[in-house]
Amino acid sequence: MGYSLEQNTFIVMSYYRNGVLNEYGDWVYSVDACKDEYLVKYPVVIEEESLKTHIRRIVARFNDTGSVCKGKPTGRPEVSEDVVDDLRTRMEQSPKKSLSKLSLQSGVPYSTCQKVVKKKLHMHPYKISLVQELQPADFPRRVQYCHWFQANLDDNRILDLSFFSDEAWFHLSGYVNSQNFRIWSTENPHAFEETPLHAMKVGVWLAVSRRRFIGPIFFQDTINAARYREQILDVFVNQLLPEELESGYFQQDGATAHTTRENLRYLEEFYDDRIISLRANPEWPPRSPDLTPLDFSVFGWMKDSIYKNRIHTLEELMDKITRFCNENLNEEVLQDIFENKKRRVALCLRENGQHFQHLL
């Protein structure tokens, strides 16, 4: 039978209450006296020997722990320090190693590896960030640009008038991974997903300053020099304000269509020497999306937002992009983006033109 906490407490109290002092001055306790008192208090049918065994067990537990309650189970034995040191060495030598592989190589159970790595070595899994590859020759060009930016554009009044531009492709349909996509059914439904031979997509060009944006300008054909000038730059410059044309700068990346002599001369008609571009002075450093406001902020945010729900037509896609810009790219947000830009320039200088995203 089971004994309640009240009954076990009574047993201990009765056992010591019925103790007597013998002729040698020692206390003598009687299991029989405790048993008899228990049966008076709790008159239940019970085998006396079983009760006496329980009395001895509870008294021994009380003497060992000071409690009549069961202690916590001891569980598995502690992992030895040799095992911990071995796992530490393996993880330090190969920090990308999975716990499954660690278990296989060390011969230590997976659950033990997990416990040691997290609780004893205090290691945690961190995602790897994908960044633009940089060449050694890029470092001084990035440093030169950042010094120029701090000397000429680290001024909110100038940034209010200057535009940073870029373009990105937005695809209509998502990618279906047949290895990971599953349909649970009692029978094979022979399901398939239709995909077009050429993915439907739309290009988006956008320019942002610290106080407003121009665009989005959409295109579906590959941009060459003539299309860039006629379909994008013409539309852009026609929306500029007099003060922006007089004092602002214009930035573009180093795409071939952007940097032809014809297009640079076209931009010089409006901006004179205030063009930030490859083949211009100041030069825009190649492979530097981490310094471009549209790349490090707007386009990623835009895609996360518009692809939350499935989009069925290119018209719907373009409408969502336009509404995103109108609803989100207000002056306060743009000011925050350019404060981020300033911080990135400072960190790029601190790292001598190398990657700095881990410091953000």
UniProtKB/TrEMBL annotation:
InterPro entries hit by this protein: RNaseH_sf (IPR036397)
GO molecular function: nucleic acid binding
PANTHER family, sorted: HTH PSQ-TYPE DOMAIN-CONTAINING PROTEIN, TRANSPOSABLE ELEMENT TC3 TRANSPOSASE-LIKE PROTEIN
Protein name: Transposable element Tc3 transposase
Biological classification of the source: Eukaryota, Metazoa, Ecdysozoa, Arthropoda, Hexapoda
